[in-house]
Amino acid sequence: MTTILPDAALDALLAQDVPYGDLTTDSLGIAARPARMSFAARGAMVLAGTEEAARLVEKAGGRILRVEPSGTAVEAGAVFLEADGPAGALHRAWKVAQTLVEYTSGIATRARRIVEAAPGVTVACTRKNFPGSKDLSVKAVQAGGAVMHRLGLSETLLVFPEHRAFLSEPPEMWIAALRRKAPEKKIVMEVGSVEEAVAFAQAGADVIQLEKLPPDAARAVIEATRHLTPPPVVAPAGGVTEANAAAYAAAGCRLLITSAPFFGQPADVKVVLEPA
User: Fold this and answer.
1) Hey, which residues does 39 pair with through a beta bridge?
2) Is residue 2 part of a domain?
3) Torsion of CA 189, 190, 191, 197, to 10 degrees
4) Which residues neighbour 19 within 8 Å (Cβ) at sequence distance 6 or greater?
5) Stretch 43-54: mean pLDDT, rounded?
6) What percent of the chain has pLDDT over 90?
7) Are 155 and 178 in contact (CB under 8 A)?
8) Domain match, 53 and 143 both
9) Do 20 and 78 have their domain in common?
10) Same-domain pairing of 135 and 248
11) CATH code at position 38
């Protein structure tokens, strides 16, 4: 069972929810009674974070009987995690584990829908996850079959208009300077129009990131730059969802950049906790 979060992080999650014991369970005197717990999907979903949920149960003092791995597609009603142990242990882990699975599985499910809407196209998710949740967000994106667009500012060259506002030289000059300073990196340029896209492609950008431009604009950029050697990768970004992914693919895009999986309802998980 591989988890993306180390035990210390999982301990911290439990400590946030149960800092001084479980007042209700302890006061009722039921903490030592044998119990069992199951997690089931209320609707079809792609699982994520199940390994972390299982480890949370173990850290609280429960025993995992079975758990389905992240990336598994399940139908409504499918049980994907079962555990037993003292009632107090299962109650301690219950809500933290459930909520973690619900949020990460929501991300994974939305990512999978975009991937399935555009077969053969790479779907890359941005770094616009909720601050502090990057590890689990990345795991969820990958569980859904997508990849990460960029993990942060340290490993990619992505030139925004906000960068270019400080530059006075022709783009050919500072693009060449970027290539000298980081020769192993692709140079990505965010643009807001077809004209900008073509100009920066001609100046030497490797990837043209189209900010909120429709599929017909993407097609126009691809047509206008296909003669370049090599032609740039044309990647729509901003507003890419399962509803328009196929249209971008049909326009010739082979890379879609999206934040959509991070925003939406969590998956719905039913937990049954009862005497063993």
Assistant:
1) 81, 271
2) no
3) 30
4) none
5) 98
6) 99
7) no
8) no
9) yes
10) yes
11) 3.90.1170.20
